[in-house]
Amino acid sequence: MVQSNKQCCIFNSYSVEEVAKKIGKQLKTVKDFGDTYIRPDGSFNTLHDLDYGGRELMKCEICGALLLWQSSRCPVYYDGYPLETNLYYSVNSKNEADEINDKYSGFEFEYKYLDNSKNAWIWCMDGEWRWSKDEANRKKMEKNILEIARTLAKELHSGQTDKVGKDYFSEHLCRVADMGAHWLEKAVGYLHDAAEDTPYSEEQVLQMLQERSGEQLRDDDAKDILEALTMLNSKTASSREEYIARFCQEDGLAVAVKLNDLSHNMDITRFENPTERDFERVKRYKNEYKKIYKALCKRIDDRVKKYSW
Fold this sequence. Notes:
Blueprint: H1 16-26, E1 27-34, E2 36-38, E3 44-46, E4 52-60, E5 66-78, E6 81-91, H2 94-103, H3 106-116, E7 120-123, E8 129-131, H4 132-156, H5 168-178, H6 183-191, H7 194-197, H8 202-212, H9 219-232, H10 240-247, H11 253-265, H12 276-307
């Protein structure tokens, strides 16, 4: 991909307010690619499976620079709002914009820019504007912490096995982590049983994660991880009923990980020769999953109604 030699004057901005104001007043759409791009061979290039977004080639009416805009709006709600990402990137021509739109799709398209661009503002899912190079560094940090969480979980659960006698780390923790929708959910997926099945407390597990990451973990993320580990520890509840009930009253990180945990636990195909006891346990897991999921859906629906006009 050819890097643009003409940077838009928008990229000289240093504040969120200034960027938002310039983008709203200076940019005029030259070409709207829409949600789907049809290639010359008739095949479709959509943004990505769970996305409602669009792409446009825009021109700055102040300096004349061309910008390619991508919007990704995921229909998964967080605290009543849909997740959204907007990216503006400098291009040299309409032909370059056509080539990019034809070649890249969805997150792959976005990550390509994040890894290579120094000339883009991106509106991130956490509600902040950042330079794309800063966002790329953040993603690199998250990937690093995720790998540390994986290694730490492997060490803490060394020698432990699941109910079918297989390695607990590879057969359960890795499966739960893989189900995570984002890096925090994956990290807690690796560590969700650490305080319950090892001699270490939630605070000690978090401390080990922070020390090994060189204090890269942000305070807000550390707080979320600690709260999730505490909530996921069944030893902090007086009964199984009380333990499951706590997830029916929340909808944060711990709930997502618990649903992933139950989803793997209730997979009867893990057992080569399941017994009646195994079937009963899986049935209990399914009922718990349904109970938590139903409560979660109701809270989300209530918030969607609240924020709907």
